[in-house]
Amino acid sequence: MRQRVARTTVSLAALAALSITLAGTPASAEQRSTTKSPTAVGHGGAVATVDADATRVGLDVLRKGGNAVDAAVAAAATLGVTEPFSSGIGGGGFFVYYDARTHQVQTIDGRETAPAAMNANSFDGLTFNDAVTSGLSVGVPGSPATWQEALDRWGTLSLAQALTGGRQVAGRGFVVDSTFRQQVADNADRFNDFTSTRDLYLPGGSPPAVGTIFKNPALADTYQQLGERGVNWLYDGALAREIVNTVQHPPLAPDANRTPRSGLMTTSDLAAYTAPLRQPTHVVYRGLDVYGMAPPSSGGSTVGEALNILDNVNLSAMTRTQALHYYLEASALAYADRGAYLGDPSAMTVSLNQLLSQGFADERFCNIDPAHAMTKPVPAGQPDGSYDTDCNGTADTTVRTDREGKSTTHLTVVDRWGNTVAYTLTIESTGGNAMVVPGRGFLLNNELTDFNFPNAAGQPNAPGPGKRPRSSMSPTIVLDHGSPLLALGSPGGSTIITTVLQTLINRLDLGMTLPQAIAEPRATQRNTASVQAETTFDPAQRAALEALGHTFTVTPPPGEIGAATGIEFLADGRLLAAAEPVRRGGGSAGVVSP
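-> structure tokens emitted (594 positions)
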């Protein structure tokens, strides 16, 4: 059932009906962005992020002639200032890029790596909460290398130029919103245990007040030096030594409530880091080419497998309940295979060609009963190249706990030439490992808690020397006959995959515009006993799905799943940029020429 998906023409009247505000008014270097518009339509390029300052900085780069890569790095650096509990130079991510000149999609793997001294038993004896706030959880940061790699290959700006906007925001300050304050408050106990973190984020012992101006001069100076000295300063210079010292000797306050475990990272681990290019994942869905991130991300393969399964049915011809039923069942099947077969490709063989083959998806599809939900967890399939319709699964029904932090962020950028970036970046838990590198103004990640532990030996995602932990980040670009149609992504830990999948289905199958597809209440099935749904999920739909055998739990406060951004190329040549209208305080979308 591979029906063609039509491009959308969005009228100004329709935008008004959707309460959409056009964005993109130029801002001077001294202006502080406080107003967020979740949707914008226009020409000349577009940026969508969770933050008004980051979107403004990205748009400013586009207006001055920079391309999508330049703007993406500039926006990411700004998010490291204004969204420091979700991203920054202490973390990593995955960068997916469409080149309008070559019509090719390429990706950069900026995932953090484990130290050479780490092994499958390194976390044994620690609770998950103890591991989160420790030096042991810190992976070698990948974001700075990603930025430099992207600029060198496809950008037009130097790193120093790309960091300018973020440096200025850090130096002059930005307006504290309720999300920023709440994230500090939620981490106050952890932040208070480290002198460098409490000094920065708990001035006077309390989180910064909403509406005040927050400045980070140490980070402004770090960006200045990083631009002047280059990323080798962080990977093989003085900043590398400062990072290692923080990991090995946490800056613990005298009155701290915890004794964090020291880390294993050395300067050699930093010096050995690379951000390699990887072939993107690729599937064809409804005649469209869908590209995503390959392992160590499980996003591209799991989204892709689910789409392949769903390509067996025409969701657009179904009732909403039936379409949601197939979406949830396909998600469970793909997650079962994710847990069984995906990990760092440098440490194991990952059979992507088989996992993403239509034959395997067809075999998995035959497990779905249109009238009854499968009992979860479902067994993994057998991607062995020999496919029929016997619905075979292996005996592996292990539910491997996904504890990926939800503090990730995603940005989407398109320039005037059609170059497109979908970039998801993170420091793992909200607030990372809670340690600010003294005098440098940025938090370190706790990404290594994405490994399975304890007793993980032999599992695909076990800790190991130099390994990259499996991720769910799913930056995605959709092409129509070789030209970009849609780019999107989301934060949300292991729910990222279903957020991207559900948004794609909403847009491509269920008749929603991109803003509607992003705003729609979400439900996620990750091969667990029950479906996790937002508090706003339609009670009537829930009851109808329960009648089919699905069980539900509601997400804990604030009851949100994901925080997506995306950009669509409209039929009339304009760009439609969209971000969350409500989740995570609402996102910020803008265009160069509204």
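Residues 519 and 580 are 6 Å apart (CA to CA).
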